[in-house]
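One record is kept unedited as follows:
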Amino acid sequence: MIKTAEYVSLGHPDKIADYISSYILDRFIEQDSETRYGVEVMIKDNTVVLGGEIRSSFQNPQLENYVREALRQIGYDEKYAERWQDKAVNINKLKVINLINRQSAEIAQGVDSDGWGDQGVFVGYACQGPKNINYELFLARKLNQALYAKALQSNNLGLDIKTQITLDNKNILTAIVAVPMLKKEDLTDFICQTLEQKPQQLLINATGEYTMHSSVADCGITGRKLAVDFYSTAAPIGGGSPWTKDATKADLTLNLYARKLAVENLADNDEVWVYLSSCIGQSCLPSATLKSRKGNNFGERNLQIESHPSVLIKQLGLDKPIYANLCRHGLI
């Protein structure tokens, strides 16, 4: 069966936006672990727009400094700006527009009584294979991360990288790579060594030239790379963006927990899907279901689980400033 998966680097404009929001959340949690946070980010050219709601005892956040430091951590620092000039986001020309206000008191009263901050449906997935994810996604991610690490050390390669792998069973039919280059560089051997096989077809920068990149070539917005952040086409996407909210919102917490339950229940199954749902202001989950496949046999059963937000947040370490690190490395 032919399957395809895509992955993007942290230098992709949508992931830049995700990382900026996650980095700012970490700074708030360092000062107040009870911070309530929902901040979306848009980045176009050298302008960053922050919009959303925050409730926190942290009164003097240095938002523009946080945005700059997030860009530096991705690799878009002053040296990068000197090398790429106006072909990529330029930290020296950055402008930050702040449209953040306070979280609704009506939402707050439900969260403060240990209820979830939103409703939604969340999905966890696991299968037999490396890191318990589908093999096409594993390879697309492995190749992307290797190219990103290489680009961080390069004076020629850029950080806005996309990879795509098409498999027939475990044979790579097509590998597609988009990576910015100041001058043409042959990456064939590096790609084949990373994938541990030679794709039947390898396409590198299929348009011929790729220099303009990041937010200069594309507008970055939080939450647009959910298929990359989750399981590609192997499972439905549950909830919204996990990178723009504190843990009470459930988009990160219950997706992480669903993944944990899927891995724990994989055993000798080929695949497991866990579906959880939440209700705003309530701690109990309206539904918790596990579906499994072994060969051509499918099973389904309801789950009895601990669902209080405070318990799961503590269990998953989400009361700590770990959001930027999760955003960098992903849910899986």
Observations:
- The two ends are 24 Å apart (CA to CA).
- The domain at 120-131+223-329 is CATH 3.30.300.10 (GMP Synthetase; Chain A, domain 3).
- The CA atoms of residues 190 and 204 lie 12 Å apart.
- The mean pLDDT is 95.
